[in-house]
Amino acid sequence: KLERYLEPGTDTARFRLFQPGLAALQRAEALFRSDRGHPIDYVSSAVRMDHAPPPALPEVCFIGRSNVGKSSLIRALFSLAPEVEVRVSKTPGHTKKMNFFKVGKYFTLVDMPGYGYRAPQDFVEMVEAYLQERHNLKRTFLLVDGVVGLQKTDHTAVEMLEEFGIPYVMVLTKIDRVSRGLLLKNVLEIQEFVKENTQGCFPQLFLVSSVEFLGVHLLRCFVTHVTGNLPTVEA
Predict the structure, then answer these.
(1) Which residue, among 223, 200, 218, 198, has the nearest Cα to 110 in the 3D structure?
(2) Is residue 79 classed exposed, middle or buried when 0-12, 13-18 and 19+ CB atoms within 10 A define those classes?
(3) For residues 25 and 221, is the Cβ–Cβ distance under 8 A?
(4) Could you tell me the CA-to-CA distances from 235 to 132, 133, 151, 170 in Å, in that order?
(5) How does pLDDT run along the chain (235 residues), one tens digit per residue?
(6) Widest pairwise Cα distance in the chain
(7) What CATH architecture does domain 35-227 belong to?
(8) Using H for helix, E for strand and C for coil, what is the string for the chain?
(9) CA distance 215 to 76
């Protein structure tokens, strides 16, 4: 929808690097839908790595500024399994621990504490230790507020991920709250930033709304893909 507002001749290749087919999308939806033989459960929370569950499955984690909508997005991803309790607070910085969710026997999803405003005192030690030591981590999802775009604290997070050599992808949240013009401005600025300043970031930016579920199906499919749960031909 945004492409209609671009100038003719603008390079749009980075908008659609990941284009799953219907079979891949259906596979992802099935993995995010729980049943008796495929439970999706909250596993545990941890403030230190020695409290984290064993790294038995492929893992993805979600990080971002406080109030960027991390927990809301994770709840939207798990909307097909409504019994999974993902706590969402109106107070920024509510998540103080690393929260682990197990998706059957396929992968684990981790909700990390937010950085910036009201971040936990031991945030740096907790997150840096996790990123450096969690060898089953397949991809980090760095959430950016679609209303305000990249902030200084986001630049710091990018520098940390680049320094550690962690593969990551940026997700633009709250796209239902912003005008088309401002959203497109933020998208293009972030894509230019990724192109000029990063090596470990996937070039495609994922746009999502946890309220209207825009982009959620594509993000589910990408999570399924990076955790190795899509056949190569489908991915």
Answers:
(1) 223
(2) middle
(3) yes
(4) 28, 28, 32, 19
(5) 888 888 888 888 888 889 999 999 999 999 999 999 999 999 999 988 888 999 999 999 999 998 899 989 999 999 999 889 886 545 544 457 899 999 999 999 999 988 875 554 566 778 888 999 999 999 999 999 999 999 998 998 999 999 999 999 999 999 999 999 999 999 999 999 999 999 999 999 999 999 999 999 999 999 999 999 997 645 4
(6) 53
(7) 3-Layer(aba) Sandwich (3.40)
(8) CHHHHCCCCCCCHHHCCCCCCHHHHHHHHHHCCCECCECEEEEEEECCHHHCCCCCCCEEEEEEECCCCHHHHHHHHCCCCCCCCCCCCCCCCCCCCEEEEEECCCEEEEECCCECCCCCCCHHHHHHHHHHHCCCEEEEEEEEECCCCCCHHHHHHHHHHHHHCCCEEEEEECHHHCCHHHHHHHHHHHHHHHHHHCCCECCCCEECCCCCCCCHHHHHHHHHHHCCCCCCCCC
(9) 10
| 12, 14, 29, 230 from 111: Cα distances, Å | 31, 27, 20, 23
Q: What are phi and psi of 135, to 5 degrees?
A: -75, -15
As given in the structure block, the two tokens for residue 153 are: 């604290």
Residue type, 106: Y
Q: For the chain, how many residues are written?
A: 235
Structure tokens at 227: 């955790």
